[in-house]
Request: fold
Amino acid sequence: MVARVAGVQLNKHYINLMKKENMKEEFIKLNPLHRVPFIIDGDLKLSESRAIMAYLVNKYKPDDENLYPKEPEIRARIDELLYFDIGTLFQSASLLLKPKLFGPVKELDASREESFKEALQYLEKRLGENHAKRFMIGNHLSIADISLAATLSFVDACGYDISNYHQIVAYFNRMKAAIPDYSEINDEAVENLRKYVESKQTGA
Reply:
């Protein structure tokens, strides 16, 4: 999504994690952490999605003052959200929901769900305090919005119900409309993941 906004044409190579393609010797030589996403841009080899997002904007859309503004206080607020996303929201969602990717799960882990709900409640409260604004920071789309939308897409694909979090649901719908080509980029992947999760739960 960030590459599209930044005008970067990606030469994409898909890594099948279920087949452990990320553990192949040739991939580990390039990427010792064997994680995705991972980019190679000239001599630069870079992992960690939020670092990649910032890099793409810094290098390929440096004059953009909305996606990742250079003004220190605004950038700090965006960084705070990026770190909240990867360290709290996505982390707690991943710990809770990833078991559904590997087999039937009768009940979600209660303590992990409590941690995820705490993260959702924080985001819900923050959005409520920010209700007059369309985006998380100011009135323009930033990489923090794109990062949070990606996490919410994962949660949606895993079938976790967040309908009681009205501010989050409204925000997620706004981001789907605001992020260029969101449906083109995400819909098929989200649906494929949803079907995969459902097949694991039913044993199909």
Summary: The longest strand covers residues 38-41. The CA atoms of residues 30 and 45 lie 8 Å apart. Helices lie at 2-6, 25-30, 49-60, 72-97, 110-129, 143-157, 166-178, 182-202. The beta strands are 38-41, 44-47.
